[in-house]
Amino acid sequence: MISATTLELVTFKTKPGTSDEDLRRAAHEMTPTLQGYPGFKARTLAKAEDGTWIDAVYWLDRPSAEHAASAIMRDGVARAFFDLIDPSTMVFRHADITPPERES
């Protein structure tokens, strides 16, 4: 189980001409940058049937998530990933993770 309290969820579609492999490669190259931020726990990338990508990043807490979200926009490796995204389709949010119920 991931010991995180905050989920960063970004949904988006890529710019025309971007292959799935291009997006996956850029995401993979960006992951070490994310791992360098305090509070990073895990990342999952998925693609829905309608072509929407879902980038889920798990953080220790909301301040860690918000700091990284702000700082990563200035990172060159991350910029290569963001340049593949159609900004008009991007939805970005943070959410508090509900812990699982404990069995009695």
Nutshell version of this structure?
The protein contains 3 helices and 4 strands, in the order E-H-E-E-H-H-E.
Descriptive report:
- The chain is of the alpha+beta class.
- The protein has a single domain, classed as Alpha-Beta Plaits (2-Layer Sandwich), CATH 3.30.70.
- The protein contains 3 helices and 4 strands.
- The protein has a 4-stranded antiparallel sheet with strand order 2-3-1-4.
- It is globular, with a radius of gyration of 14 Å.
* Low confidence ranges: none
CATH architecture: 2-Layer Sandwich
Instruction: Tell me the Rg in angstroms.
Output: 14 Å
What is the C-level CATH assignment? Alpha Beta
SSE arrangement, N to C: EHEEHHE
| Integer average pLDDT | 93
Strand percentage lies at 25-35%
Oligomer: single chain
Which features does this protein show?
single chain, 104 residues, alpha+beta, Alpha-Beta Plaits, 4-stranded antiparallel sheet, 4 strands
